[in-house]
Design brief:
205 residues, alpha+beta, NADH Oxidase
Length: 205
């Protein structure tokens, strides 16, 4: 796929008024995550990935703290991580189930771990964690808008202390998501969407 160069970022202090963009609205109306186990090479190269990360870093961030960071996983290092997780799973009573779930990590050619940090100060921890989630969302959207398959996953290895100990996490850091990227071997199918009726309420005094 021929992908155009990323647009130059705006200059600091440049006015950025809201602008209607039918292309973006149309993309969001059809956005669909690709199954992680269908993702194949090629994946974004280093230059493409840098552009995607720059877009995702434009996430809402109260206090301008950037309470998140990125850990890039590519083979052969990613394969080594999967093997260590497979060994860990083998020690558990539900090891077969845990091992099966590793296919979603092992198959994609590129994974970006979004790591959530909490920075002490005036900004509540909840808002900082939500900002990391927003980064995951924007990275998934940016990849899709560039024609890549993307999937945001957290599984047992995002929460299990022995599993997260295999990654260079600092004290207080948590994994907001594993964002898997690549070229889908098959197009994802539309899934059922929620009925907004019971989910929307208008408050009145």
């Amino acid at each position: 796929m021929d992908r155009p160069a990323f647009a130059a970022p705006p200059s600091f202090g440049e006015p950025l008024p809201p602008a209607s963009d039918r292309g973006v609205v149309g993309f969001l109306a059809r956005r669909r995550s690709s199954s992680a186990v269908t993702l194949r090479p090629p994946a974004p190269d280093e230059a493409e990935l840098a552009g995607l990360l720059a877009l995702s870093a434009r996430a809402p961030d109260h206090g301008k703290l950037a309470p998140w960071r990125f850990l890039v996983l590519r083979d052969p290092d990613k394969a080594e991580l999967v093997e260590r997780l497979r060994s860990l799973a083998g020690l558990r009573s539900d090891g077969a189930k845990l091992t099966a779930k590793l296919a979603k990590l092992a198959t994609p050619p590129l994974t970006v771990v979004v790591i959530s940090q909490f920075i002490e100060g005036d900004i509540p921890e909840w808002e900082q964690r939500l900002s990391a989630g927003a980064v995951c969302t924007l990275l998934t959207l940016a990849a899709g808008a560039r024609g890549w398959g993307a999937n945001w996953i957290t599984d047992w290895y995002a929460y299990d202390p022995e599993a997260t100990a295999l990654l260079p996490l600092h004290e207080g850091e948590r994994i907001a998501g594993f964002i898997h990227l690549g070229t889908p071997a098959e197009p994802p199918l539309e899934r059922a969407r929620p009925d907004l009726g019971p989910l929307v309420e208008h408050w009145r005094a």
